[in-house]
Design a protein that fits this description.
Structural class: mainly alpha
Distance between the termini: 26 Å
Number of strands: 4
Shape: globular
Strand order of the largest sheet: 1-2
Helix content: over 70%
Number of domains: 1
Order of helices and strands: EEHHHHHHHHHEHHHHHHHHE
Oligomer: single chain
Number of helices: 17
Radius of gyration: 22 Å
């Protein structure tokens, strides 16, 4: 790709050469290219997640312009969430088999097309098609499933932290993109808001991802970050290379406990708060920009919480922190119906934001620990599908509860109860004992690409 005097293919190749020459091995000084790939992944997920989280910004404008009721608008959210999650197993399998790059690039491309098309809609079926179908198919590729596959290929150490970084990027997208969408909608209307978001995906994120993302370390002459070199050059433990089929995983209680708790995660976060918090706040007299700012604050706390979660999980294990996240989330949802001023709204945003996406690093790394990294994309895809089923159910039920009662209180209370129950599910998981493998204690095989 050449623009003026710049040949961006040479830029990408040059960057690889610099990284290879300075950090060709994990033990040498310099930057491992895995961190470049992580940065590109974070950028793609930041914008894609930010675009998806902006759905609530458009509820009132579409309702006012077209007269659509909230349950009808919520159908688009339901379709979006089901497709976003339903494509997780397929996206994970494709990433496991062909590499995460094609999945991530294709996802960004389709997301941009869908959002741009949404700016032209005038019928509810078009909203379902453009945003609910096309954008959601794209978002299914630019998601944590792909990030988990990337992390399992590029990192042996710091894997939970890397997944935490990608989760933090998604949170930062909420912090940055949602207020931008709200500003564009207020200043220029909802059509230009959709168009602006689509152009960011198509003109910025797509070329960066295509140029700098690499499927695995072998493509740039490296070993995965954290591979211990000694005894056998570039050896990695056999245990980390094992895989598990879906049928085998379904016989393991850990799979269903992870899927059940992640169902609650989707119900309480993306489905209920992500779709209905802004309309709830506006109904209670908060300006739209104030409600969007609270969601942005929640996104900022997501960044802090998710990064801290990755660190805690790498250092202290996954099960106890994950149970604590769900318990605190449940308590915060019990508080939400009582929120009556900006300070209380922002306090809720801070507390809820700290554990909004912090569940992702322990869930994804527990999947790898229990079932092996060779199947983490596919199995985490299925677990993520349960997350999106919960999100879709909460999105639709939240709209129905509002239509029946003219309030969201019972929807929030039911979500709080589920959050506490999810903490119990997580405590029932038997977390594998973590140990540092050595050549004398386990078999080793040469590190392979993919």
């Amino acid at each position: 790709m050449r623009i003026g005097h710049w040949d961006f293919r040479r830029v990408g190749t040059g960057l690889e050469e610099i990284v290879r020459s300075r950090g060709g091995r994990p033990t040498e000084a310099g930057l491992h290219y895995g961190w470049i790939v992580t940065g590109v992944t974070c950028l793609a997920l930041l914008v894609a997640a930010g675009v998806r989280s902006s759905f609530g910004v458009f509820v009132h404008p579409l309702q006012q312009e077209f007269g659509w009721d909230r349950s009808a608008i919520s159908v688009t959210a339901v379709l979006s969430m089901l497709l976003y999650g339903g494509l997780g197993p397929l996206a994970g399998r494709l990433a496991d088999r062909y590499g995460p790059k094609v999945v991530l690039v294709g996802g960004v491309l389709l997301s941009g097309i869908g959002v741009l098309a949404s700016s032209t809609m005038s019928r509810i079926w078009q909203f379902h098609l453009y945003y609910g179908l096309i954008t959601s198919i794209g978002a299914g590729g630019a998601a944590t499933v792909t990030a988990a596959a990337m992390a399992s290929r590029w990192f042996v150490e710091r894997r939970a932290f890397v997944i935490g970084l990608t989760g933090a990027a998604m949170s930062a997208g909420q912090l940055m993109i949602l207020p931008l969408a709200a500003y564009l909608e207020q200043a220029y209307g909802w059509r230009w808001s959709f168009a602006g978001l689509g152009l960011i995906l198509a003109l910025l994120i797509l070329p960066v991802t295509a140029l700098f993302f690499r499927n695995d370390p072998a493509e740039v002459g490296l070993k995965p970050y954290g591979v211990v070199i000694g005894g056998a050059e570039g050896a990695v433990p056999t245990e980390s290379l094992r895989g598990t089929s879906l049928i085998e995983a379904a016989r393991h209680s850990g799979f269903w406990l992870l899927a059940g708790s992640f169902f609650v995660c989707g119900y309480t976060s993306t489905g209920l708060i992500g779709v209905h918090l802004i309309p709830h706040a506006v109904d209670h007299g908060f300006p739209s920009l104030t409600a969007s700012a609270a969601m942005g604050l929640m996104g900022a706390m997501n960044v802090v919480g998710t990064l801290a979660s990755g660190y805690l999980c790498d250092r202290y294990g996954k099960r106890i922190p994950l149970a604590l996240y769900y318990f605190l989330r449940g308590l915060s949802l019990f508080f939400l119906p009582m929120v009556g001023n900006v300070v209380e709204l922002n306090l809720f945003a801070i507390v809820f934001g700290l554990n909004y996406i912090s569940t992702v690093p322990p869930t994804a790394t527990l999947t790898a620990d229990l079932f092996g990294k060779r199947s983490v994309g596919m199995l985490y895809g299925w677990i993520f599908f349960s997350h999106q089923i919960g999100a879709a159910l909460a999105s639709y039920l939240g709209g129905l509860v509002y239509d029946w009662t003219c309030a969201y209180d019972w929807a929030f209370i039911s979500a709080g109860i589920l959050g506490v129950l999810a903490a119990g599910l997580v405590l029932a998981i038997r977390e594998p004992t973590r140990r540092v493998p050595t050549a004398s204690s386990v078999g080793i095989v040469p590190a392979t690409a993919g």
